[in-house]
User: Fold this.
Amino acid sequence: MRVLRTPDERFADLPDFPYAPHYTEISGTDGVKLRIAHIDEGPRDAAPVLLMHGEPTWSFLYRKIAAGLVAKGHRIVAPDLVGFGRSDKPTEREDYTYERHVKWMSDWLVANDLKNITLFCQDWGGLIGLRLVAAFPERFARVVVANTGLPTGHGATPGFEAWLAFSQGVPEFPTSQIVNGGTVRTLSEAERAAYDAPYPDESYKAGARVFPALVPVREGMASVQENIAAWTVLEQFDKPFLTAFSDSDAITKGGEKPFQNRVPGAKAQEHVTIVGGGHFLQEDQPEQIADVIDAFVARTR
Assistant:
């Protein structure tokens, strides 16, 4: 496994992102070490709010939510998945599998010994984050899911098929354009530059490229059985579980229903809709999301 590391200067002077990186080294494949970055802000003795990003973003996505939650007295922890942000980036598509991502983030979670966690997860942050909940339910106090799912061999919509074809075939993977296309508002030039910052050239983008092809939306795909097993755990998860999907994301529209219907902890919750949010609702409505998380924690302590 060959690994690239984005130069630090690529992350200088990002808008609204004064957060210093913290690094955790884990074992990758063939004895290769991988460095995973995360931000950790707020009182260190407070219970952590774990903010997990998806494709093709990084912890920059949570900059305003982090500021809002820290101002309300919370500790926030937001990692960059392997292949994204300030974390290390294996160079080959074959280096990335769904199960490796789960293993890498499981090792990161245990190494940082996070407990009493409130999870907020979106997109691949949910596909991976919910697997962490299933693997370590004792570490999680509550969960908020937004614009995500945990597919088990079905769910390939025409929109997803178009995204898959585009992502695998486009000569240059236009990271910032993808994020901008998934928001209701238009990102500023500086914000778009921040989403391009982790990738000096195409050789850094193997993880971002391959993620769409790893979503287990057909029978027989890798990780279908593992996700079925994770659902078995979630169907016993009776801790508070909230859905907060946005109103303007065609990709995940209706995706809150399986969670509301199948997770015991979701049964008595006051589920919310994030009004005015696209797929990347964190960019569109950060203050609204911070308020939802803060209120959810307060009423379920």
